[in-house]
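Supplementary Methods, section 5.1.

A reviewer requested that the exact input to the structure prediction be made available. We therefore reproduce it here, unchanged from the version used in the analyses.
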Amino acid sequence: MTKQTFSRRHLFGSAAVIGIGGPLLTACGGESKDEETPSPDPGMQLTSTADVPVGGGVILPEEKVVVTQPTRGKFQGFSAICTHQSCLVSEVTETIDCACHGSKFSLADGSVSQGPATEALPAVPVTVKGNKILTT
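The structure derived from this sequence is encoded cell-by-cell as follows.
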C-alpha cells in the first residue's frame, strides 16, 4: 500500500480553488433569486385591462412580469421568473405555470400551488388607471 502525500503548494492551491469555486457554484444553484426580481420603473404601462382575462393572466417577457386578474377587476403583478431555477414562466391557465420543472403558482397571490418551487413569485405592485395597468 502506497502512502500519498500532498505538498504545501498542492494544499494551498486546492484551498484557493475551493475558496473561489465554492461561491461561484453557490451562485449557480439554490432558490434565492433576489437579483433577478424585476423592478420596472414606476408608472410604466405594462398592458391594458382588456388583455388580461378574468381567471387568467398575461406574461410580459420583456418586462419579466406576469399580470393576472384572478377575479373581475382585481389585477395582480408578479415576477415572471420562477423561484425554482429562474426560468421564465411559460403559461397562465388557472395557475401561473413554469414549463421547466412543472412549478405552478396562484393567480391571486403568487404562492406555490405545485412544486418543485418552494417560494412564491415576488409581487410587482400594479395599479389601474382607466384601461391601463401600470407599475407603482
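The two ends are 70 Å apart (CA to CA). These observations are discussed further in the main text.
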